[in-house]
Design a protein that fits this description.
single chain, 154 residues, alpha/beta, Rossmann fold, five-stranded parallel sheet, 6 helices
Length: 154
């Protein structure tokens, strides 16, 4: 029995198809879930502040503007979410994902982290704030299925 639809924010690494795997898995499991995410076009995300508010000579201020404009979206969508899934990839450092996890924790949101076990030590504080630490998108789908519907499906 579903209690209404749930809203899940998918944060973090943008270079693999993990979001699509979770969305597809949720659809296959007939989960009543609405997914939200940050802007996943790397160039747009990096350049949005300067493109909208004006160019900056120094890269620090260019990045600062972009981070703040992106934070408007991130904070708003995390606030609207029931669960926040934060993916950390091994190829790139996702400092913004660590911010998202910290913000979600401060807002009392349930957090699921997803990463390779080799990153466990580096992410021990982030994982400490999480309700679950997954290694695969399928595990996230199974957690959502269980928490939303009470079904322990394989």
């Amino acid at each position: 029995m579903t209690l209404n639809y749930w809203t899940v924010y998918l944060s973090g690494e943008i270079h693999t198809g993990w979001r699509e795997e979770i969305i597809s898995g949720a659809k296959s499991a007939s989960l009543d879930v609405k997914f939200l995410s940050p802007v996943t076009d790397h160039g747009s995300s990096d350049d949005c502040g300067a493109a909208i508010l004006g160019k900056e000579e120094k890269s620090f201020w260019h990045d600062n503007k972009g981070a703040k404009v992106n934070a408007i979206r991130t904070r708003t969508l995390i606030d609207r979410s029931d669960v926040v899934v934060v993916r950390f990839g091994d190829k790139y450092r996702q400092w913004n994902a660590a911010f998202d996890a910290g913000y979600a924790a401060a807002m009392g949101k349930s957090i699921i982290t997803i990463h390779d076990p080799s990153l466990g030590h580096a992410l021990k504080e982030v994982d400490g704030a999480a309700m679950a630490v997954a290694e695969t998108p399928n595990q996230v789908v199974r957690i959502l299925n269980y928490t939303i519907n009470g079904r322990l499906a394989g």
